[in-house]
Amino acid sequence: QVQLVESGGGLVQAGGSLRLSCAASGRAFSRYAMGWFRQAPGKEREFVAVISGQRNVIYYADSVKGRFTISRDNARNTVYLQMNSLKFEDTAVYYCAANDRLTTRNQYEYDFWGQGTQVTVSS
User: Fold this and answer.
1) In this structure, are residues 49 and 70 in contact, taking their beta carbons and an 8 Å threshold?
2) Which is nearest to 61 in space by CA: 32, 88, 85, 35?
3) How confident is the model at residue 26 (pLDDT cuts 50, 70, 90)?
4) Which strands make up the sheet holding 78-83, listed edge to edge?
5) What is the C-alpha separation between 61 and 46, in angstroms, rounded?
6) How many CB atoms lie within 10 A of CB 32?
7) What does residue 42 show for φ and ψ, rounded to 5 degrees?
8) DSSP structure string for 51-117
9) Counting beta carbons within 10 angstroms of the beta carbon of residue 123, is it exposed (0 to 12), middle (13 to 18) or buried (19 or more)?
10) Parallel, antiparallel or unpaired: strands 117-122 and 112-113
C-alpha cells in the first residue's frame, strides 16, 4: 500500500512558477512509476507528466512540455513537479499517482492516488 500526499499548490499570476511535491509512504518507492495528472473544472482528468522509478524514462503532455519538469528523490520518497511560465489554462487540481508496472500516460494503470492540490493561475 502506498499513500500519497501532494502539497505546494496555490494562487499564482500567469507567467509565474510553482513547485508541487508529492510525498509517498510505504516501502520500495523506487519501484514505482510516479505520474502527475490534473483535472480542471468541467473537464476530464488528464495526464501531465510521468517519471520511472530509476528516473531514466520521462514523458510529458505536449501542453506542458518545455514549461514543466518532473523529478524525484528516491531517498526522500518524494516526486516533484516544477511548473514555470504558468498559463491560465493550467488551472486545475493536480494529483500524483503511483503504479509499479508501467511508466505510462494512462491514468487507469495507476493504483494509488493522492488527494490533489489546487493550482489557480490568474490571467
Assistant:
1) yes
2) 35
3) confident
4) 4-7, 18-24, 78-83, 68-73
5) 9
6) 27
7) 75, 5
8) E-TTS--EEE-TTTTTTEEEEEETTTTEEEEEE-S--GGG-EEEEEEEESS---S-GGG--EE---E
9) exposed
10) unpaired
pLDDT reported for residue 1: 85
Beta bridge partners, 70, equal: 81
Closest by CA position to 35, among listed 66, 6, 67, 1:
6
Average the pLDDT over 14-27 and give the result: 96
Q: Give the pLDDT confidence of 72-91 residue by residue, as tens digits.
A: 999 999 999 999 999 999 99
d(CA 2, CA 115) in angstroms, rounded, equals 13
Q: Which amino acid is at 118?
A: Q
pLDDT value at residue 27: 83
Q: Any idea which residue has 499564482 for its cell?
A: 12
DSSP one-letter code for 30: G
For residue 40, which amino acid is it? Answer: A
